[in-house]
Amino acid sequence: MPFQSPRRGSKSGIVTSQFEHSVGYAKGPHNGGQRRVEVEESRLDAFSNAPKWIERGSVTSRMLRYVSPRHYGGPLIHQQNLGFPAVTHPTTNQTQLCLTWLIGQKAKKKKKKKKKKKKKKKKKKKKKKKKKKKKKKKKKKKKKKKKKKKKKKKKKKKKKKKEEEEEEEEEEEEEEEEEEEEEEEKKKKKKKKKKKKKKKKKKKKKKEEEEKEKKKKKEEEEEEEEEEEEEEEERRRRKRKWREWKTKEEEEGRGR
After folding, report:
1. Where in the sequence does UniProt note compositional bias of the Basic residues kind (predicted)?
2. Region of residue 74 (left: phi > 0; alpha: psi -120 to 50; beta: else)
3. What's the whole-model pTM score?
């Protein structure tokens, strides 16, 4: 809403030197005293929702001129719901804190701020110390935990190593046993094979001897048969010869 700059002394909320109904005071550099001001009710409603930065009180020395009625027809002063007076610039329509309230408030605020800062610093220091202590404690705890974990890990590793060694030893023993068993079995097998071979050889020899004997017997039988045959032949031959001789004798006897 643009601000119309009316004449001095009109009842439109501009700061003047003489007003019957005053609702607030603005103390400025002019005349070094107080100025009575009147603010219309409608104007008060218009500024009931002041910007947030008013609360923070960010006002500089430049704003001193805003309070003076000699510039731009003077500022408008109104009472805020926030509990402190504020001024609105007639041309830019900016709302600022009233200087009278601000000066005292600034000093108060400065003192409060200093105290707060000191308290905050102390609190911060305490907090830092506490944090440091906590951090140290945490670090110590962490270190202890790490150490414990390392120890546990080492123990576990040692245990594992021992178990592995035992397992290895067991495996070696098993292998040795297996080898011994295998060797024994091999030996047994060899012995059995040898025995079998011997038996086979014996059997073969026996068979050969039997065959030899059989052959010999056969040969003997054959020889015997041959002899018998020869004898038979001889007998037949003699018989034949005797018959021939007898026949010859008989023939000769007849011839006489």
Report:
1. 106-161, 187-206
2. left
3. 0.27
Q: How many CB atoms lie within 10 A of CB 44?
A: 16
Distance from C-alpha of 102 to C-alpha of 87, rounded to nearest angstrom? 11
Q: For residue 26, give the DSSP letter.
A: E
* Predicted confidence (pLDDT) per residue in 129-185, tens digit: 888 888 888 888 888 888 888 888 888 888 888 888 888 898 899 989 989 998 988
The answer to whether the beta carbons of residues 37 and 30 sit under 8 Å apart is: no
Helix (H, G, I), strand (E, B) or coil at 227: helix
Secondary structure E strands in 19-139: 24-27, 34-37, 76-79, 85-88, 95-97
> Tokens 């009472």 sit at which residue?
79
Phi, psi of 210, deg, nearest 5: -60, -45
Helices vs strands, H then E, count in the chain: 4, 5
Cα gap 67→33, rounded to integer Å: 13
